[in-house]
Design brief:
This protein is of the alpha+beta class. It is 18% helix and 34% strand. The protein is built from three helices and nine strands, in the order αββββαββαβββ. The chain has a five-stranded antiparallel β-sheet, covered by helices on one side. The protein has a two-stranded antiparallel ribbon with strand order 3-4. A hairpin with an 8-residue loop joins strand 1 and strand 2. The radius of gyration is 16 Å and the shape is globular.
Length: 141
């Protein structure tokens, strides 16, 4: 499974279209999510999450509301690839967020666990990083 992830991530393996169904996602120490939070995304054949919305109730002066909507949407991509969407920094150069960026300020690690199906075959993936290194990557398919 690790070899498959590496080949897909590095572009060595060209993949055909696949059907991906996410059933549950757990985030902990990832972005604004300090504590472990589990989301039931798709259960019993019914989508559970339809709209992602939120307000930052901690910092009303922030230019971003910081409630974690983008982090929640990007977490599955990060779990699979270790990368996030491209963000522009102050010098307008494009870059992907680093481990330092994704680990919550009050946490030592960031973790995202996904469970679901790829082409009707169950899978699970767990990615855990510290600020400086990949700590754990498990992919069962």
């Amino acid at each position: 499974a690790k070899k498959l992830l590496f080949e897909v991530e590095s572009g060595m393996k060209k993949t055909e279209m696949v059907q991906l169904k996410l059933q549950t996602m757990e985030v902990e120490g990832y972005g604004p999510f300090k504590d472990s939070v589990q989301y039931d995304i798709f259960g019993n054949g019914i989508p559970r999450i339809r709209v992602v919305s939120g307000d930052n109730v901690d910092d009303s002066s922030s230019t971003s509301n910081g409630s974690g909507k983008t982090s929640l949407v990007m977490a599955p991509i990060w779990a699979f690839t270790g990368r996030t969407e491209i963000k522009g920094d102050h010098s307008w150069r494009k870059r992907s967020l680093t481990n330092v960026d994704v680990v919550n300020d009050e946490s030592k690690t960031a973790k995202v666990c996904l469970h679901g199906e790829i082409n009707d075959t169950p899978f699970s993936i767990e990615r855990v990083v510290t600020r400086t290194a990949l700590k754990k990557l498990t992919f069962v398919y």
